[in-house]
Amino acid sequence: MIELYNKIKNTREDLDIKQYEFAKDLDIKLTTYSKYENGFLNIPIDVLDKISIKLNVSVDYLLDITKQRNYGKVRKMNYHIFLTNIRNYRKLNKYTLTTLAEKLYITPQALHNYELGLREVPVSILRELSIIFDVSADILLGKLKKIKK
Question: What is the CA angle 37-34-110, rounded to 5?
Fold first, then answer.
């Protein structure tokens, strides 16, 4: 996940945006943003989504899943679609809660809680799901229907 923090920082700096300006744009405290950018605090998915929009880059780019910065206009995620996609891709790939949970090194109950929206999905789990399902994180998040090539 170190790459995530570096991508955010480097992209922000490439755009000549100061940390305090970016934190203000994201509507979070500078100290909180600084902890996100330096890897001292886990970034919630909704904040990662805001960051991708403000930097005009895909979540896939930030998670180092692709080198392509964006797929056109960067859209807002749809958390309900994301939760539905976790379940749908799990079933499409013929994983049970137990088998997918094992691949993610979490309990089946934790995965079940993610799918139901009872527990917030960490960014690290989003990245792993994208890799396991071989699908764009932006598609999982409902930011894209399909990638234009």
Answer: 60
CA–CA gap between residue 95 and residue 111 (Å, rounded): 12
What is the Cα–Cα distance from 1 to 145, expressed in whole angstroms?
25
DSSP designation for 96: -
Indicate the pTM of the whole model.
Answer: 0.90
CATH superfamily, domain 79-140, is lambda repressor-like DNA-binding domains (1.10.260.40)
The pLDDT of residue 70: 85
User: Which two three-digit tokens encode residue 55?
Assistant: 């930097």
Q: For the structural domain made of 2-62, what CATH number should be given? A: 1.10.260.40
Distance CA 100, CA 94 (A): 9
